[in-house]
Design a protein that fits this description.
The protein has one helix at residues 82-87; strands spanning 12-13, 20-24, 42-48, 55-58, 70-72, 77-81, 89-92, 98-106. The protein is built from one helix and eight strands, in the order ββββββαββ. By secondary structure, it is mainly β. The strands form two sheets. Strands 1, 2, 3, 6 and 8 form a five-stranded antiparallel sheet that branches. The chain has a three-stranded antiparallel sheet with strand order 5-4-7, with no helix packed on it. The longest helix has 6 residues, at 82-87.
Length: 107
């Protein structure tokens, strides 16, 4: 069985960590590189809007666009690894801005 990073504990908020909120519009945005510390293992991400505020996200360093990236629909919420959050580039998928709220977690 290959080695994996798997922890059978529930993630807990990183002590002293603060949330970051981004407005995702027609210009590419990224999370700040200093908004959490080395204890953070995961980031809880929530795409907020009124239903048509979808975003496109890339993790490979390329620029997201309507034809490049993963589509995260308004209402998406879930955990990303800290490295995944670090590499995420986001842009709105349509004509309506979205908000992305992110919170640092550890185990």
């Amino acid at each position: 069985m290959p080695n994996t990073f798997s922890v059978n504990l529930y993630p807990v908020p990183t002590e002293g960590g603060t949330d970051e909120r981004l407005v995702v519009s027609s210009t590419v945005v990224e999370f700040a590189t200093t908004w959490y510390d080395e204890n953070t293992k995961f980031v809880y991400v929530d795409v907020q809007g009124s239903g048509t505020n979808d975003i496109m996200v890339t993790f490979d360093g390329s620029t997201p666009s309507a034809s490049n990236g993963h589509k995260f629909v308004s209402g998406f919420h879930g955990f990303w690894s800290a490295r995944q959050a670090d590499s995420a580039k986001m842009i709105r998928a349509g004509g309506t801005d979205a908000a992305v709220q992110a919170s640092p977690f550890t185990v």
